[in-house]
Amino acid sequence: MCGIVGLFSKAPEIEDSLGEHLAAMLTQMSDRGPDSAGVAVYRDPAPPGSSKLTLFSADPLQDWDALAHELGQAFGGSPEPSVRSSHAVLVVEEEAEDAEAWVRGAHPELRVMSAGQTIEIYKETGRPQEFVRQFALADFRGTHALGHTRMATESRVTTEGSHPFSTGLDLCLVHNGSLSNHNRLRERLRREGIDFQTENDTEVAAGYLAWRLREGASLEEALEGCLEELDGFYTFLVGTADGFAVLRDPIACKPAVIAETDDWVAMASEWRAISVLPGAAEAREWEPAPGVVYAWERAKV
Amino acid sequence: MGAGSGRRLRVGASEGLTVGAAETTAAEVVDLAVTPLRELNQRLHDVARERPHPRRWRVVNPNGAHAVACGLDAEVDVEIEGHVGYYCAGMNKMATVRVRGNAGTGLAENMMSGTVVVDGNASQSAGATGRGGLLVVHGDAAARCGISMKGVDIVVKGSVGHLSGFMAQAGRLVVCGDAGEALGDSIYEARLYVRGDVATLGADCVEKPLRDEHRAELRELLGRAALDGFDPAEFRRYGSARTLYNFKVDNAGAY
User: Fold this and answer.
1) Interatomic CA distance for residues B121 and B138, integer angstroms
2) Domain boundary pick from A117, A147, A162
3) What angle do CA A264, B117, A250 make, to 5 degrees?
4) Non-local CB neighbours of B39 within 8 Å, separated by 6+ positions
């Protein structure tokens, strides 16, 4: 069991209070996943030519200012670290791939949680309520956000094994379920040059999506590929720069509800996570059909 | 003070309770925004032993809570204003539970008797393993509706998802819309009626002729569900081909 939430704003008032709503939704899902929690928030786009990295350090004494200084020396400018608990966001005057590669090379002790223009990923072990406080979730403004509460079944409870998983620039995945063919698929994807940091099954699904997207598939095509390639149970919620997408496996044991009003689209494992949103009682609500990709994008709303 | 007010704190306003009657007639209102769920369920369980007791209950602000009005064992009417989470009205006996919203997984699971009505949609496994009573879903029911039903009657005004009626042993499942894949897989003696399309039939489930007694049965069930607008003649009947009851090696491929 895990909990998934997603919120996509269609109104400025929702953008202004995105973090507050996300925190409330995540807290509602805390009994579904008391082991760890995480969010991806899409907000404050980096200027053209620059990119945004979210970094995690296991060292509580991590000197983020020193790292920012190094990044400034490598790529110019004077990045200011925005620190939240064990994570820091840095806007770097460089394309995301190159900035990410530099961090991986120069600082192997750090984890790149996300890279892109707008995405920020924060995740940590511990109770979701604690996570909400520790990362001051209620402060976030943004266009859309995803969240996850984890009850681990397939691999260890670690920060790296928490969700969301980055699946490429401005992309991420959260998952409720378990995959049974992840070991074999991980080896196949490694041969394709996809890098894995954990033994986690969801990271393999994220790697699969990253690989398909890298090979030119659209997000819909990559998700439809999951129906063929992934064996197991899943409700997936995928975040993109412009929106999010939902997919349930054809057996559909894992729950999902979607609700929409004039002001927002929300997805969650259960209604109680959506019930905390303004106007929820009047929302149009339905359960996504198995094996069907549902996607919302800013341009299409 | 009517029954139910006063000594029970954090319960919403009671509306015009009658003192001294065998059963009070106005609804006892419980607001789940302030009353803990366990307290509500405990009170609903206690009424079976209390005289007099409130006959009608209104539950407001369910906000998707799980296990609302579970394990009832008395002739009470419970009306829930909003969406409920998992296992609402599970194990219901005698009570009438109405959800004015949608219901999550396992609605009326293992109900024994009484009536459960949902105005909206029901998630997967609605009416699972039910032994008796009537479950009515006015919207759609998702996957595995009536899975392993053992005597309950289920009437769905909309459609049902895949694997509905899986291993259904007894009772009737009436679907006024369509049925998803593998309807009635490994079915025993439950009777399935579908008005719309069936995506596929599951193993050992076959269409059977709709005779007069079946039309009469449908009319009775639709009437009890207050869905008289549907013509019983428009339905098709499905049931067991009875080839998987006892293991025969010739059928091994079908399991």
Assistant:
1) 7
2) A117
3) 55
4) B8, B10
Q: What does the alpha-carbon distance between residue B119 and residue B105 come to, in Å, rounded to a whole number?
A: 15
| Cα(A195)–Cα(A182) distance, integer angstroms | 14
At A224-282, the pLDDT tens digits run 999 999 999 999 999 999 999 999 999 999 999 999 999 999 999 999 999 999 999 89
CA angle, A284 then A289 then A292, to 5°: 115
pLDDT at B248 over 80: no
ipTM of the complex: 0.85
Q: Which range marks the domain in which residue A105 is found?
A: 49-117
- Partner B contacted by A275 (CB < 8 A): yes
Start-to-end CA distance of chain A, whole Å, equals 31
B122 close to B101: Cβ distance less than 8 angstroms:
no
**pLDDT tens string A116-172:** 999 999 999 999 999 999 999 999 999 999 999 999 987 899 999 999 999 899 999
How far is it, in rounded angstroms, from Cα B235 to Cα B158?
Answer: 13
The pair of structure tokens assigned to A207 is 């790697």
What H or E segment, with its residue span, contains residue B23?
A: strand B23-24
* B58 and B28 Cβ atoms separated by less than 8 Å: yes
A2 is catalytic: yes
**What are the structure tokens assigned to B78, written together?**
């419970």
Task: State mean pLDDT over A179-193.
Answer: 96
Chain B hits for A270, CB-CB cut-off 8 Å, are 64, 85-86, 104
Q: Residue A12 in 3-state DSSP?
A: helix
- Token code pair at residue A86: 């064990």
Answer yes or no: do B64 and A274 touch at CB < 8 A. Answer: yes
SS3 content of chain B, % helix, strand, coil (to 5): 15, 25, 60
A57 plus A153 within the same structural domain: no
Does A163 lie in the same domain as A107? no
The C-alpha atoms of residue B68 and residue B89 are separated, in whole angstroms, by 6
What pLDDT is recorded for position B18?
36
Q: Is A141 on the interface with B (CB under 8 A)?
A: no
Interface touch B64/A281, C-beta < 8 Å: no
Do A154 and A263 lie in one domain? The reply is yes
